[in-house]
């Protein structure tokens, strides 16, 4: 019996636009609460979630390793018009095309379940289907880390979360993924189609070269609205108030344990 022919993979990479100030390279920028106390001041530079950068890089590396085994790499984002900048970054890194689910500038960021439902509808509409979805294990602005798992549940696909190594066999249509766990790594074998979420040790994203940045401007960007996809991005959680933490007061010194005990008692702190 002849082996089944290798399948050319269609890879979808969801990416999120978030605040650059959350990244360590911008440690000098202070995050401030907005005057309405509904969130943080967004009038700062934005960039792609770093775990999603790793996801884009891994998709491009898979194409390089598999030679002709990858048919297309498509990036997708949900957000306001300025989110096109994040898609351009993914395109400059090596994605072939992109999808922008555009929301109003004033709209709150969608919650993980709404994102997963949106991605499910995107996947349904892809000619040739989607074999692999690679996305960051979490976004570093909300640190929720649920979208990949929810998407796998909605689609009924396998999932390999916190991936630190990915190997794809396009003939067997399966992946061997090493994932980060407490105290080491776990190797799992999964059938395609598959959801993979990326961990830090998977790779180091490349910098987009100037020629690729210029080429990215000519790559296609398909646009949808949530209404086009039949999804509701209305948040289910309500933020009542956001406030800065209270200013820290200076400490004091004591000469001995007895003085420390007296100060604790004066402050109303007693032993349990």
Automatic annotation (TrEMBL):
Alphabetical list of Pfam families matching this protein: ETF
Annotated GO MF terms: electron transfer activity
Gene3D superfamilies: HUPs
SUPFAM superfamilies associated with the record: Adenine nucleotide alpha hydrolases-like
Compartment(s) where it occurs, according to its Swiss-Prot or TrEMBL record: Mitochondrion matrix
Keywords, comma-separated and alphabetical: Electron transport, Mitochondrion, Transport
Comment on bound cofactor: Binds 1 FAD per dimer. Binds 1 AMP per subunit.
GO cellular component term, pick one: mitochondrial matrix
Start and end residues of each Electron transfer flavoprotein alpha/beta-subunit N-terminal domain: 37-233
Cofactor(s) essential for the protein: FAD; AMP
A biological process term (GO) from this entry: amino acid catabolic process
Quaternary structure and interacting proteins, as annotated: Heterodimer of an alpha and a beta subunit.
Function in brief: The electron transfer flavoprotein serves as a specific electron acceptor for several dehydrogenases, including five acyl-CoA dehydrogenases, glutaryl-CoA and sarcosine dehydrogenase. It transfers the electrons to the main mitochondrial respiratory chain via ETF-ubiquinone oxidoreductase (ETF dehydrogenase).
Assigned protein family: Belongs to the ETF beta-subunit/FixA family.
Protein name: Probable electron transfer flavoprotein subunit beta
Source organism per UniProt: Sphagnurus paluster
Lineage of the species this protein comes from: Eukaryota, Fungi, Dikarya, Basidiomycota, Agaricomycotina
